[in-house]
Amino acid sequence: MTRMFVDAWDPSYGSSFEGDGGGGDGPGSSSSAQVDVDVEVPAAEWAPIDVSRTATVPDVVFLVDGVRRNDAGLWTAEEDGTSYAGLAASYAAGVVRCDLARGAAELVGARVARGLFTASPSATDVQAGSVRYEVHRVGGNGEASKLPAAVQGPLTALEIEISAAARDGGSDGADLLVVDGPLRNRRQLPRTIGYVKTQQKHYLPAAQEAIVPRLRPSQRTPVFHLGSVWGGWSWYLRLPGASGAPWSGIVRVECSPELTAEQAIELADVSVATLPRFASSAYKDPRAPQNLVPIAGLERRLRGMLGDARVLHRALALATSHTR
After folding, report:
1. For residue range 195-226, what is the model confidence (pLDDT) as tens digits?
2. Which of 12, 183, 242, 301 sees the fewest Cβ atoms within 10 Å?
């Protein structure tokens, strides 16, 4: 029988044994993606763009976000003497529906899931008290340092599922779905934009990037195209309430590469007319103004739904002790 052991380290600090630690590009690194900046206007004519007078503000805006938490690190002891790292994680996704005409917002969908992520070929689901951690087999050697990234796939799938369910209520097509973070494999969702509030890479040539700090609140850059694996149409905009620093309040927005350039420009105009009204205030949110008010409230609600991390850690320890 495969045995499991809970790592004594607090999972918020990672694993006590990382194995092959992964690297990564640090903040401010340059992207290797091919960029086309001549989409909306010629490169030499780049300048801040104001809110379009013809932009149609959607009647309803859906905002979707997900949260995740590492509940415990585990190790298996296989019958052949080998061992694999494991990660027990909780994650949740939810959708807030904002009716702009009525000035009302409501939670229209939220769901919690648990998973055991490991490369162990023999690991099975773990029942920790009343909570079940469903096994998710990861590829490769399953290094402990790479297991947290494996949670993103199931979390994204959960976000897509509840987003579709929330829209089934109907809004006659006059809606907009805002995904917190890059679109990635959610780009097939209709009338959807990805909202990237943390800028870690330089995408634009120097001449065009110089336009970004010049943006005033509720202005955007022209649309450009990213030719990467998860590429598509993208643009920067500045939210109100920024501190005055060059990149304060700047977010990058993106939409599906399957859209035409004209459709992407239309969505860019819609985003500038819509997103600034959701900007947060510094006295309420340390990530203001980028952390949109509905998203901040949704995150708090979802984290509460994950349950008590200490209780779950003890339940996992007790459950896995029975396999020894």
Report:
1. 998 888 889 999 999 999 999 999 999 999 99
2. 12
